[in-house]
Amino acid sequence: MKTQLIESIKNLEKVITEAGYDCKNIVRLNIYTTSSEELFTCFDIFQNWMTKHNIKQASTLLEVKSLFETLKVELEVTVVK
Questions:
Q1: Rounded CA gap, 51 and 49, in Å?
Q2: Which of 5, 28, 35, 71 is the right S-S partner for 78, CB 3.0 to 4.6 Å?
């Protein structure tokens, strides 16, 4: 979970930056995970990332039965300019 969360954050930053947006302008964040319990063991990584970019968004955490192939976590955001 920890490795996937770190990779998801890196990928998200890359997509946002390459599109000409800034992470600080995230206004909605959905977190999908196959295990909330496991996600909370490494949630500090996520919180530090939010603090680093001064992100103050509405969030939803959803525990789902499965994600694509072997994924344990997926992030979905809406960013504004």
A1: 5
A2: 28
Q: Is the pTM of this model over 0.90?
A: no
Residue 75 vs residues 48, 52, 58, 70: alpha-carbon distances, Å = 16, 17, 13, 15
Nearest to 79 by CA among 18, 1, 2, 7: 18
The residue with tokens 């996520």 is 46
- Structure tokens given for 37: 């319990």
39-69, pLDDT tens digit by residue?
A: 999 999 999 999 999 988 788 999 999 999 9
Query: Tokens 């509405």 belong to which residue?
Result: 58
Average pLDDT over residues 64-75: 95
